[in-house]
Design goal:
Blueprint (H helix, E strand, L loop, with lengths): L35 H9 L10 E2 L13 E7 L2 E6 L3 E4 L7 E2 L10 E4 L4 E5 L2 E5 L7 E3 L11 E5 L2 E6 L3 E5 L7 E4 L8 E2 L1 E3 L2 E9 L3 E5 L7 E4 L4 E7 L2 E9 L2 E5 L7 E3 L5 E6 L6 E7 L2 E7 L6 E3 L1
Parallel strand pairs: 1-26, 10-14
Antiparallel strand pairs: 2-3, 3-4, 4-5, 6-7, 7-8, 8-9, 10-11, 11-12, 12-13, 15-16, 16-17, 17-18, 19-20, 20-21, 21-22, 23-24, 24-25, 25-26
């Protein structure tokens, strides 16, 4: 049984390779102004926080350990996961209590995907798979072990996608068991979760560090730029309405109610680097790094106000 996660000693950060330029076309007419300098300072501060208007801080006694960076917060059924450079933690009560996931120590969890075959996690060391509802994970080879350093993942049913700085975009039609190249010139800048429409697995939206959010309607062969926050690191849509999208980047946070065609500013808790919807779409979660642990907030009014869990 995993132990309840508490603040641990700082561990050495995992070296991060320089991002390669994306082949997604750059937008020529659409722009989105955000307080980029403020957001970047908040993210790089690594634990310096100021509680802003609409944000309630209560302080967590047993914050989940993630290591030297925080990449993801994701909801899978009734579970909430946070993942970073060195650790992953899971909560089954909306973030009130957390347990570590020892089999993902050092996995550098950067992307998550739920398939019919199990739960997938990707990071610098490669791909991990769980077939026991997220209780344990094991390393899974991609392309006979030739592809690792997975920065983004997404799936719907048995159709899954992954993005790697070295290999570009790959796709699977058997739940992530086997993979084939879909576009080797796209995906080098993708981060976090690739959104895959459960009613049309060819419809994709991905956070791209170079272009904000990008979209594909042909299973990742071609892409167009949607915009959103610059330096996009995280994206999620409401499972009950895939037109409602939240995005987080170095340029701040944004919401869209029309599938990414237009965006409005989203005020996030200070230092937020990832956000997601709950499985029922009723809540938004935001997560930020505090030293080597994660702080998590929830909003039940579309991001107007936030409460730390």
């Amino acid at each position: 049984m995993p132990n309840t996660t508490r603040r641990g000693a700082a561990r050495a950060p995992v070296a991060r390779p320089a991002a390669r330029a994306s082949a997604v076309p750059t937008p020529s007419t659409r722009s989105w102004a955000v307080p980029a300098v403020v957001a970047a300072v908040a993210l790089l501060a690594g634990g310096a926080y100021v509680v802003t208007q609409g944000e309630e801080s209560v302080g967590a006694a047993d914050a989940p350990y993630v290591g030297g960076d925080l990449h993801t917060v994701t909801a899978v059924d009734d579970k909430l996961y946070v993942g970073g450079h060195d650790g992953v933690a899971v909560s089954t009560d909306g973030g009130q209590t957390w347990e570590s996931v020892p089999s993902l120590d050092g996995a550098d969890a950067m992307g998550w995907a739920q398939t019919d075959e199990g739960l997938l996690v990707g990071g610098h060391p490669g791909l991990y798979r769980s077939s026991d509802n997220g209780a344990t994970f094991a390393k899974s080879a991609v392309a006979d072990g030739q592809v690792s350093d997975i920065h983004a993942l997404g799936a719907a049913g048995d159709v899954a996608y992954l993005a790697s700085p070295a290999a570009g975009l790959l796709a699977s039609t058997d739940g992530g068991t086997t993979w084939e190249s879909r576009n080797a010139d796209v995906g080098q800048g993708f981060m976090g979760t690739v959104l895959v429409d459960p009613t049309d697995p060819d419809r994709l939206i991905a956070p791209d560090m170079q272009n904000g959010l990008v979209a594909s309607s042909d299973g990742g062969t071609t892409w167009t730029v949607l915009g959103g926050p610059s330096g996009a690191m995280s994206a999620a849509w409401d499972p009950t309405d895939t037109e409602r999208i939240v995005a987080v980047g170095m340029g701040g946070g944004a919401l869209s109610s029309d599938g990414g065609q237009t965006w409005s500013d989203l005020a996030l808790p200070s230092g937020t680097s990832a956000a997601t919807y709950s499985s029922d779409g009723r809540s938004l979660y935001a997560a930020a790094l505090d030293g080597d642990t994660a702080r998590v907030w929830v909003s039940t009014d579309g991001g107007a106000t936030w409460r730390e869990v």
